[in-house]
Amino acid sequence: MSGRIAIGSGSAYADDRVEPAFRLAATGRVDYLAFDCLAERTLALAQVRRRQDPGGGQDRRIGQVVSGLANYLASGRRVVGSFGSANPDAAAADTMDALREADLAGVRVGVVRGDDVLQQVLAADLDLPEMGRRAGELRERIVCANAYIGAESIVAALEADAGFILGGRFADPSLFVGPICHELGWALDDWPRLGSATLVGHLLECGVHGAGGNFEDPPFRLVPDPHDLGLPYAEMAGEDDIVISKTPGSGGAIDERVVKTQLLYEIHDPAAYLTPDVTADFSQVTVAEVGPDRVRVGGAGGRRRPATLKVLVGLDLGWKAVGEISYAGPGCLDRARRGEEIVRRRLAGLGPAVEELRCDLVGLNSVAGGVVAGGPPPEVRLRVAARCATRPAAEQVVYESELLYFGPAGAGGATGSVVPLLGVTPAYLPRSEVRIETELLVS
């Protein structure tokens, strides 16, 4: 424990660039880098990879991360991340291999397990509120269940002097809460302080998104050099001694407007933001610029953490088929609508094998549902998407979409894909049912 901490964002999701993290590490300004590697979609994709290969499902950037941060780790600085994704054991093996390859001996690796709660979900027959059914009714389709876990195991690994900590479905801000509580000596039931730690995690967890990327709205709001956005980091010595900044010399911005934009991103109730660590209260947060790309924040609070943990339940939904084709020029909208009519009629013969079918006219109604007023578009792309019970039915959806080359006139640029479909839906499990364990490995 040092009484101070400088912690930076390493990434915001599984396919994020790693070079900005290396650039921030090289400045020497941060003692911790926290890598958020997951989202609902990316965890589902990781589970698909693990189903195809029992040795897969972990973050695929581990070798790059260890190699690019070799000097950083050798200096005693620390890395925390949800690199385990759907397979923490495979991630641990990859990390140990990468450390040996980088000639980094003696690095302690904390491996956190226990977010896999499939058996508990089935045993408790949990309610799946979005589905309107219970887990037992969908038992044959449930393939995975992962709980959002908090900072306790990260703190335990840091107390055991781990330099590289990995696990599965850590909640995004918890990746930052753990190091903050460890370095500042904060108890994990000091709710107001955990609210402050969660504020920092929330402002950093989205990477370059929170350093100006999400703020950009041309022509009204612009940031410098958006092609070279830097990662945000925080310097913190207390609950009201927090300064947010970003990699020096990088693009983007850290100012009052950018920080306020990120503060309100993806939170349901600013006065009761639920995480595994705390019910955070951001309703009284203050934001003030104190220098170029430096913003002081404070005023967060917190109350007792929720009694349940959110669980992401993965469901085998069969196969997803997507076919697209473009129309342009006068009458393109009418031709695209005629194409949709043809495909729907052709697919009607597949009956219940096509469980769900959606057609969008990209450029007209695919995002806003057609509520934005305007004249006819100069071009439009017909997107046909279906959820199918069998792969042959899914392949037929793509085939029929591609055959629109033969009419209506002027179609082009057809693409198609067929992939296994793993859907996700939330459930809530008593935290007493989630059994977390931490193992320490040494390279």
Descriptive notes:
- It is a single chain.
- The longest helix is centred in the last third of the chain and has 16 residues, at 332-347.
- It contains twelve helices and 20 strands.
- The protein is globular, with a radius of gyration of 24 Å.
- The chain has helices spanning 19-26, 40-52, 62-68, 70-74, 88-101, 118-124, 152-159, 174-184, 191-204, 256-263, 332-347, 391-402; strands spanning 5-11, 32-35, 78-81, 108-113, 127-128, 133-134, 142-147, 164-166, 232-238, 241-246, 273-274, 279-281, 286-291, 294-298, 301-303, 308-328, 354-362, 379-388, 412-430, 437-442.
- 28% of the residues lie in helices and 30% in strands.
- 47% of the residues are buried.
- It has a ten-stranded mixed sheet with strand order 13-14-10-9-1-2-3-8-4-20, sandwiched between helices. Strands 7, 16, 17, 18 and 19 form a five-stranded antiparallel sheet that branches. A three-stranded antiparallel sheet has the order 11-12-15.
- The model has no long low-confidence stretch (mean pLDDT 95).
- Strand 9 and strand 10 form a beta hairpin.
- It folds into two domains: 5-114 and 149-306, no CATH class; 316-422, 2-Layer Sandwich (Alpha-Beta Plaits), CATH 3.30.70.100.
- The chain starts with a strand and ends with a strand.
- It has 443 residues and is of the alpha+beta class.
Main structural class: alpha+beta
How many distinct helices?
Answer: 12
- What is the mean pLDDT? 95
Strand order of the largest sheet: 13-14-10-9-1-2-3-8-4-20
Task: Work out the strand percent.
Answer: 25-35%
How many distinct domains? 2
